[in-house]
UniProtKB/TrEMBL annotation:
<dbReference type="GO" id="GO:0005829">
    <property type="term" value="C:cytosol"/>
</dbReference>
<dbReference type="GO" id="GO:0003700">
    <property type="term" value="F:DNA-binding transcription factor activity"/>
</dbReference>
<dbReference type="InterPro" id="IPR014710">
    <property type="entry name" value="RmlC-like_jellyroll"/>
</dbReference>
<dbReference type="InterPro" id="IPR000595">
    <property type="entry name" value="cNMP-bd_dom"/>
</dbReference>
<dbReference type="InterPro" id="IPR018490">
    <property type="entry name" value="cNMP-bd_dom_sf"/>
</dbReference>
<dbReference type="Pfam" id="PF00027">
    <property type="entry name" value="cNMP_binding"/>
</dbReference>
<dbReference type="InterPro" id="IPR050397">
    <property type="entry name" value="Env_Response_Regulators"/>
</dbReference>
<feature type="domain" description="Cyclic nucleotide-binding">
    <location>
        <begin position="9"/>
        <end position="78"/>
    </location>
</feature>
<protein>
    <submittedName>
        <fullName>Regulator</fullName>
    </submittedName>
</protein>
Amino acid sequence: MNDSVTSSMLRALPAAHRQRLLELARQVSFEAGSRLFEEGGRADRFWIVRTGTVALDMRVPGRRAAVIETLGHNQLVGWSWLFAPHTWHLGAEATTPVRAHEFEAAAVRALCGSDPAFGMAVTQWVGDVLAHRLRAARTRLLDLYAPYGSGSGSRV
């Protein structure tokens, strides 16, 4: 499990913004093995994991999908909903039974547009998550496919 500092809504959003966001949530469950979304699909919602784990994966031609990161408690699943063209850049699968807060992207984007302070806080939170995920994806792909792995001394 990765450090939740970069993706925990509880740490990233001020209490008032966190409460406003949670007012838009509905509770959902996924069985282990359920696909939350597929790479290239329409990103119209996102989740914050309450319990369980979700694997983010990326299609690799001629190979099995590569797991980029595993997410758990209080972590954001999905960032593509915030940025046009609102299509998933990765896939996601529940690796254990998952309970989560689910948010409709259009409602959250509308709230972001109507309240600039809220919108800035959410955008900063999701941007921080995105930056962390890009670093994790790079490291994971180097580990999987580079001749010598990512190694602490590699300079790419």
